């Protein structure tokens, strides 16, 4: 099981090829918020205009399928059963969850500066 954001995933999406080739039993949950959500949060938390945070996203489901990886879009409500299906498949799978979450306070090293 792996949980990744869309921005970070794009740095190494070719790893899907390895997962497919080796038939690795990993289910990837990709949270798609259209960019670098943590950086966007840092900007907005400081009442600044976010710069360089929004990304043009590919069709992640089609990308995964092009490597032969099972993939589908899911809602938060569908996530549990979809994760169980992915893990039960015995091979790689990708679940794309379109959502924007507020990151927990401890995940960004810059947040302590914004508290003042």
UniProtKB/TrEMBL annotation:
It holds the Pfam family TPP_enzyme_C. InterPro entries: THDP-binding (IPR029061), TPP_enz (IPR045229), TPP_enzyme_TPP-bd (IPR011766). Residues 2-95 form the Thiamine pyrophosphate enzyme TPP-binding domain. It comes from the Bacteria. SUPFAM superfamilies: Thiamin diphosphate-binding fold (THDP-binding). Belongs to the TPP enzyme family. PANTHER family: ACETOLACTATE SYNTHASE LARGE SUBUNIT ILVB2-RELATED (PTHR18968:SF167), THIAMINE PYROPHOSPHATE ENZYMES (PTHR18968). This is Thiamine pyrophosphate-dependent enzyme. It comes from Blastococcus brunescens. The lineage of its organism: Bacteria, Bacillati, Actinomycetota, Actinomycetes, Geodermatophilales.
